[in-house]
Amino acid sequence: MDDAQLLRYSRHILLDELGIEGQQALLASHALVIGAGGLGSPVALYLGSAGVGHITLVDHDTVDATNLQRQIAHNLARVGQLKAESARAAIEAINPDVRVTTVTQRADAALLNTLVAQADVVLDCTDNFATRHAINRACVAHKKPLVSGAAIRMDGQLSVFDTRQPGNPCYACVFPEDAPVEEALCATMGVFAPLVGIIGTLQATEALKLLSGLGSRITGQMLMIDGRDLAFTPIKLPQNPACTVCGQSH
Q1: Which of 192, 196, 181, 194 lies closest to 153 in space, CA to CA?
Q2: Domain limits of the chain?
Q3: Do residues 152 and 162 lie in contact, with contact meaning Cβ atoms separated by under 8 Å?
């Protein structure tokens, strides 16, 4: 690190848990962020400000006026722009050290297979089960840690799925691919603005811990977050031996 970086990241370097070695690990790391909306906004901003050396942002959508209530990486001047490009501009305004790559197409299985293989950590900031399952499959296939967040109305959840260690569950262990699901969209059900900030910030926290070598203590758990009472409830998640993605037969 040069003198400017030592100054910029001095508050990290002062932490016994991080220090110079941890900050250098962040600078050398690559995070893949899928979704640049309510969850992806705080994720992208905190990963960028913390000095993650390379961030790939994937989002095919554009900024809409209704997004501005909660998607803090965007602003009124960038309504109509691609969200990935808007988030890149927000990161670069904070930290020009960071290399930001944008992918402005829908995250399908083929694209994810390529992008996940290149990343050190993957953050699922999407809002639909089909994409979540495609992300999970790619992470299991390439043995990459997955930090997953979700929020709707006043409730949210956070999980870290890391199948590099045997016995850890994947996303499909909890939400099987063939299970009937009812998509819950904030466009029809609403979402409390600070809740996506809380969950996105926690996603960034777990990703930074994984990248710096601290590791995540919530691997194999789901942290349920009740925004009404600000209650945090961890639930242990066992691996499903019959899981079609990470089970014993796979």
Answers
A1: 192
A2: 3-236
A3: no
Cβ atoms within 10 A of the Cβ of 200, count?
32
DSSP-derived letter for residue 38 is T
Token readout for 162 is 């890391």
Under a CB-based contact definition with an 8 Å cutoff, are residues 33 and 58 in contact? Answer: yes
Question: What digits encode the pLDDT tens for the residues 132-144?
Answer: 999 999 999 999 9
Q: Write down the number of H helices and E strands in the chain.
A: 10, 8
Superfamily of domain 3-236, CATH level 4: NAD(P)-binding Rossmann-like Domain (3.40.50.720)
pLDDT-derived band at 178, boundaries 50, 70, 90: confident
Rounded CA gap, 176 and 162, in Å?
17
* Closest-CA residue to 143 (of 124, 111, 166): 166
> For residue 185, what pLDDT band results from cuts at 50, 70 and 90?
low
Calculate the alpha carbon distances from 140 to 51, 58, 95, 143, 164 in Å: 26, 19, 32, 5, 8
Beta strands in 93-154 (DSSP E): 99-103, 121-124, 146-152
Distance CA 218, CA 228 (A): 22
Nearest to 108 by CA among 134, 126, 89, 74: 134
Q: Residue 228 has which token pair?
A: 């009404």
Strand partners, 235: 222
40-50 and 83-94 helices cross at what angle (nearest 10)? 30
